[in-house]
Amino acid sequence: MLTTRYLFLTRHGEATPTGELTEAGQRQAVLLGRRLRDVPVTAVHHGPLPRAAHTAELIAAQLPGVPVHVDEAAGDFVPHVPKREELPETAAGVLLAFARSLPAADEELAAEAERRFSGPVPGTEPRYEVLVTHNFLAGWLVRASQDAPPWRWLALNHANAALTVIRYSPARPAALLTYNDQSHLPAELCWTGFPPDFYVP
């Protein structure tokens, strides 16, 4: 029997160029953990890099007794690099220029991430899982939840410690319940991790 999975998806807190959480990033993670206190979280998953691991640790500290798991499939990697023919002509130039600046895609790991973190789960009680990951994989999983073309992850940007919630129910399409929600963060901690032209005052 399959039951519903709720995936609480977040990007790690704000980090330094060397990959450690800043003071602001630590505050973001703690506040996100506090927001999740009323959710019956069953597990916190995170990628192996320090900024994701530390964010997950700070979130889990607000959720006593919830197990924390590190998973390579939650890491920082490129899920897909599109070919020109996949892209809309109006944006192909910009998207291709960005795609060419990226490392090679790991489509096998991207498929593993979908298997691990999306879809309904075995059991009779709903499962509530937190996934602390990186911008690229967050965009990939949101794209997949909407059955959007593979290239579409390139146009999704995720704020640090913002909350995206996806519901996967048996025999139903995935539902994007919340996207990039930062209501748990004060104004001075919002919108970090975005390029300047994405800033929203």
Q: Would you write up a description of this structure?
A:
This protein has a 6-stranded mixed sheet with strand order 4-3-6-2-7-8. The chain has a two-stranded antiparallel ribbon with strand order 1-5. By secondary structure, it is an alpha/beta fold. Strand 3 (43-46), helix 2 (50-60) and strand 4 (68-70) form a beta-alpha-beta unit. It contains 5 helices and 8 strands; from the N terminus they run ββαβαβααββαββ. Helix 1 packs across helix 2 (50-60). 27% of the residues lie in helices and 19% in strands. The chain has helices at residues 23-35, 50-60, 92-100, 107-117, 135-145, and strands at residues 2-3, 5-11, 43-46, 68-70, 121-122, 127-133, 163-168, 175-181.
Describe, in short, the structure shown.
Helix content is 27%, strand content 19%. It contains 5 helices and 8 strands, in the order ββαβαβααββαββ.
**What percentage of amino acids are in beta strands?**
15-25%
Q: How do the SSEs run, as a string of H and E?
A: EEHEHEHHEEHEE
Average pLDDT number: 94
What is the terminal-to-terminal distance? 46 Å
Overall outline: globular
Low-confidence stretches: none
Helix content: 25-40%
Number of helices: 5
> Helix/strand/pairing class, anyone?
alpha/beta
Strand order of the largest sheet: 4-3-6-2-7-8
Gyration radius (Cα, Å) is 16 Å
Kindly state the number of beta strands: 8
Report the sheet with the most strands, covering strand number, pairing sense and barrel closure.
6 strands, mixed
